[in-house]
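[recover] target loaded
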């Protein structure tokens, strides 16, 4: 018999202000269940980190939030609007959803034939922003992530860390309500990882709502309001970083953390 998820969240006195609310989410690929009855909320201004082994369903969960993957069952609600329910997309405006939810991928996904600044401008142009306004905002954002000096470089001329920071600028360009990060440092060397985590720390300090999948457990401990351990497509344990990472209640969580420390 499957034990219920262990939750160590403090009881909130104020009503939830969830930017992302996921209820009963399930997803299968070729008959294999990769998400199984997942329930998760990300409140405005909060940072939620999702941890767990590779292949545990974390990336699929992220992709279901902005409908890059279609869930089989359950409900996805973004910024107060139900966008997917029981296998059907019910979002009335997918373009608005894309503006509301920014996403930073593992592999950057920059257009190789466009310069750094053009990659950031393109997202805004597609959303209907005036060209000059889009260009000015792109420059501001590249400066914010400390790659303005590389604005005219093509992706192949950028380091991995620079490419990921351009990708963060692109995700910020449409003024999203929440940013999704899918293992943003997994392809980076230690120096580039520090650069990208530095930018993410600044976003956290500025109050950006973030849902991130990460193997950087010290970083998750530092910036997160809430940590979620996913294993086998289910949420096994969730709560405050100090509870989940330092004093986990579930044996499976303890096993995962022990294997992480051994590998580190």
């Amino acid at each position: 018999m499957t034990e219920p998820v262990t939750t160590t969240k403090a009881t909130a006195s104020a009503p939830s202000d969830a930017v992302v609310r996921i209820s009963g989410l399930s997803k299968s690929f070729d008959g294999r269940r990769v998400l199984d009855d997942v329930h998760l909320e990300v409140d405005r201004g909060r940072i939620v980190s999702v941890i767990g082994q590779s292949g545990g369903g974390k990336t699929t969960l992220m992709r279901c939030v902005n409908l890059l993957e279609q869930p089989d069952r359950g409900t996805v609600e973004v910024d107060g609007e139900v966008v997917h329910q029981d296998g059907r997309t019910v979002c009335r405006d997918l373009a608005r959803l894309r503006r509301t939810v920014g996403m930073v991928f593992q592999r950057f996904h920059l257009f190789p034939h466009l310069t750094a600044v053009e990659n950031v401008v393109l997202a805004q142009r597609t959303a209907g922003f005036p060209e000059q306004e889009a260009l000015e905002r792109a420059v501001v954002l590249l400066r914010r992530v400390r790659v303005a000096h590389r604005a005219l470089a093509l992706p192949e001329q950028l380091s991995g860390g620079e490419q990921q920071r351009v990708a963060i600028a692109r995700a910020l360009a449409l003024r999203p309500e929440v940013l999704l990060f899918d293992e943003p440092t997994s392809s980076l060397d230690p120096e580039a990882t520090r650069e990208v985590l530095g930018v993410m720390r600044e976003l956290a300090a500025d109050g950006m709502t973030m849902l991130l999948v990460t193997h950087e457990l010290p970083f998750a401990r530092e910036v997160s309001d809430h940590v979620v351990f996913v294993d086998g497509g289910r949420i096994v344990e969730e709560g405050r970083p100090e509870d989940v990472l330092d004093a986990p209640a579930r044996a499976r969580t303890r096993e995962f953390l022990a294997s992480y420390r051994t590998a580190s």
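[recover] notes: The longest strand covers residues 18-29.
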